[in-house]
């Protein structure tokens, strides 16, 4: 899914100038972005072990665990 940064910037920088059509368009774009992000997050959570195996085979180590205190790097 692709959102249009120029449209997004124009709408956010001048919110008083937005008409109903622009608001609906921006809402649709943001809803699509949220749905795509949630789908990716669901797939990553569902295939966590498989992705870890692929990562370890490719890079010879486990993926970094962000926020864990056991990670020394």
Number of helices: 3
Model regions low in confidence, pLDDT < 50 over at least 5 residues: none
Distance between the termini: 34 Å
In angstroms, what is the radius of gyration? Answer: 19 Å
Query: Which H/E pattern describes the elements?
Result: HHH
The percent range for strand residues is under 5%
Roughly what percent helix? 55-70%
Instruction: Report the count of strand segments.
Output: 0
Overall shape: elongated
**Mean pLDDT across residues:** 74
Largest sheet: number of strands, sense, barrel closure: none
Characterization of this structure:
The structure is a single chain. This protein has 73 residues and is mostly helical. The protein has three helices and no strands. It has helices at residues 5-13, 20-46, 48-59. It is elongated. The two termini are 34 Å apart.
